[in-house]
Write a structure and sequence with these properties.
There is one protein chain. This protein has helices at about 20-25, 70-75, 110-125, 145-150, 170-175, 190-205, 235-240, 250-260, 260-270, and strands at about 1-10, 15-20, 35, 45-50, 50-55, 60-65, 80-85, 85-90, 100-105, 125-135, 150-155, 165, 185-190, 210, 225-230, 235, 245. By secondary structure, the protein is of the alpha/beta class. The chain has two domains: about 1-90, Beta Barrel (Elongation Factor Tu (Ef-tu), domain 3), CATH 2.40.30; about 100-210, Rossmann fold. The longest helix has 13 residues, at about 110-125. The radius of gyration is 18 Å and the shape is globular. The relative contact order is 0.13. The structure holds flavin-adenine dinucleotide (FAD), FE2/S2 (inorganic) cluster and magnesium ion (MG). FE2/S2 (inorganic) cluster binds next to loops.
Length: about 280
Amino acid sequence: MHIILEKKQLSEHVFEMTIKAPYIAQSRKAGQFVIVQIDTEWGERIPLTIADADPDKGTITMVFQAVGATTKKLAMKEAGDAVENILGPLGNPTHIEKFGTVICVGGGIGAAPLYPIVQALKKAGNTVKVIIGARNKELILFEDRMKAIADELIIVTDDGSYGRKALVTEPLAEYCSQNPKPDLAVAIGPPIMMKFCVQTTKQFDVPAIVSLNTIMIDGTGMCGGCRVNVGGETKFVCVDGPEFDGHKVDFENMMLRMQAYKEKEDEDNHACSIGLKKKGETA
Ligand code: FAD
Ligand code: FES
Ligand code: MG
């Protein structure tokens, strides 16, 4: 059992939760995620990135968007409630070194998983320029936290309700065309946004790292649900990733696979039952 210590609503569908998980808090590194199971009897397993952690307090923080049955159920929990299982930290930590200048791009909810990476890149002595983009002002996340650590911060919105009216690729292209060009770009967000960020960096020959959010079931390399094509090879996002060389990722194939269980997810009020007993079913 893991007690929820704090819950904040960041926007209509986005929540931040700080949960007691001392072992994970002590060992997690930037880029890693956990698998959360709200209740073990019927609960679906969902991967969520560790957006922050406090090893002294033994807590981890997750930021999630309530998009379907399980995330909506989690959003209904309050401080003092508990989630039954948290498995992690999972996935490979972000490769951190002193690259020089790194452009970090967070789209929508992607700003939250980007935050520990920005922190770690700064700590390693990089100049870190951050671009946060969202559909509108209300969906911009982590602005203050990023401002506190980034060397530069650009906010863009699709509708121009806050910051520049642009897609994230516009300031990204501007940064990439500077001389000297950035040493690395990191992009986290919806697959379509990462795909276009990668295309932009390719034009300028800037290396790009992306963090992939595929379907995951076990999160430990056994089910194959999270497989993606990277450089012509099949990779499992849970154990080989979640971060990959963006220039090698087959985004078209990944986006198709993301839709594979959509019908199932939409059944039972969006409850995903892949690999689970249905309510009322016995083993
Ligand atoms: P559903 O209605 O079941 O699904 C909505 C959509 O979410 C689906 O179309 C599918 O694209 C995706 N999804 C559904 N089930 C899974 C699953 N088991 N694994 C992965 N994706 C799934 N979301 C956040 O809001 N914050 C995060 O920090 C975050 N980090 C992630 C880290 C990793 C490594 C991965 C793989 C995913 C991450 N996600 C994150 C996505 C999150 O796991 C899904 O939004 C969540 O599983 C949706 O579940 P649902 O039952 O609420 O919605
Ligand atoms: Fe099962 Fe990755 S989630 S192999
Ligand atoms: Mg689901």
